[in-house]
Design goal:
The chain has 211 residues and is α/β, with parallel strands linked by helices. The protein is built from nine helices and nine strands. It has a five-stranded parallel sheet. β5 and β6 form a beta hairpin. The longest helix has 19 residues. Bound molecules: adenosine-5'-diphosphate and guanosine-5'-monophosphate (5GP). Adenosine-5'-diphosphate (ADP) binds next to α2, α6 and α8. One of its GO terms (cellular component) is photoreceptor inner segment.
Length: 211
């Protein structure tokens, strides 16, 4: 029943193949995605997730996330508004059907940024995305990046590092991700990312130019 519902939901919205990004918090997903969206704003669209965490300085409600209370989020999940949702580092996160639909309606490649639970749950749907993992060069570098970002309390930082260890192990299992990118030097990682998406980018450019 559940699966049949998702089948109908997504088959009604054929468009370019979405791309799911995952990888440990602090690996550089947002940095790489922002670069990509800036260079190709008419090719990619970001699926704006919901979260119960507080906005970080510079983050914008409705652009980076929809910031909601736990009560609002739970009610949305109960109503069936979400494709997937997960608890991460003490907060709820989720991808709404509306967020994906909004991007796909513009014939753009829908980008999702989700944790490993999101990856697993999306694999149970008919979304059929390309799965890309962004990995840090090492746990030490990851910890330094998270500390230097200065967005996390010590408790949140430790939770994220614990989750990262688990995620990095699962991510190495064959078949989980289509592409694994180690984000050591940013420009090099960005080049690898662009080449992994080259065909999809060309396809969308062609389609959107002729329509
Ligand atoms: P994520 O979205 O995966 O949690 P961010 O994009 O916020 O990670 O990156 C974490 C921190 O590391 C940010 O402060 C960012 O500026 C920095 N960063 C990202 N990529 C690199 C890189 N290749 N080299 C050095 N610092 C980086
Ligand atoms: P952050 O708080 O650093 O923005 O995100 C923490 C983690 O939550 C990251 O691993 C990010 O990929 C993940 N995340 C963000 N949005 C979603 C979502 O909609 N669903 C799931 N499952 N994870 C998400």
């Amino acid at each position: 029943m559940y699966m049949r519902f998702f089948s109908r939901f997504f088959s009604a919205m054929a468009g370019p193949r979405p791309v799911v990004f995952s990888g440990p918090s602090g690996a550089g997903k947002s940095t790489l995605l922002k670069k990509l969206m800036k260079e190709y704003d008419n090719v990619f669209g970001f699926s704006v997730s919901h979260t119960t965490r507080n906005p970080r300085p510079g983050e914008v409600n409705g652009k980076d996330y929809h910031y909601v209370t736990r009560e609002e989020m739970k009610a949305g999940v109960e109503r069936g508004d979400f494709i997937e949702s997960a608890e991460f580092s003490g907060n709820m996160y989720g991808t709404s059907k509306a967020a994906v639909q909004k991007v796909q309606a513009q014939n753009l490649i829908c980008i999702l940024d989700v944790d490993m639970q999101g990856v697993k749950n999306i694999k149970e749907t008919d979304l059929n995305p390309l799965y890309i993992s962004i990995q840090p060069p090492s746990m030490e570098v990851l910890e330094n990046r998270l500390r230097d970002r200065k967005t996390e309390s010590e408790e949140s930082l430790q939770k994220r590092l614990r989750a990262a260890k688990v995620d990095m192990e699962i991510g190495k299992e064959p078949g989980v991700f289509d592409v694994i990118i180690v984000n050591d030097n940013l420009e090099d990682a960005y080049k690898v990312l662009k080449s992994a998406l080259n065909e999809e980018i060309d396809q969308v450019k062609k389609t959107n130019m002729s329509s």
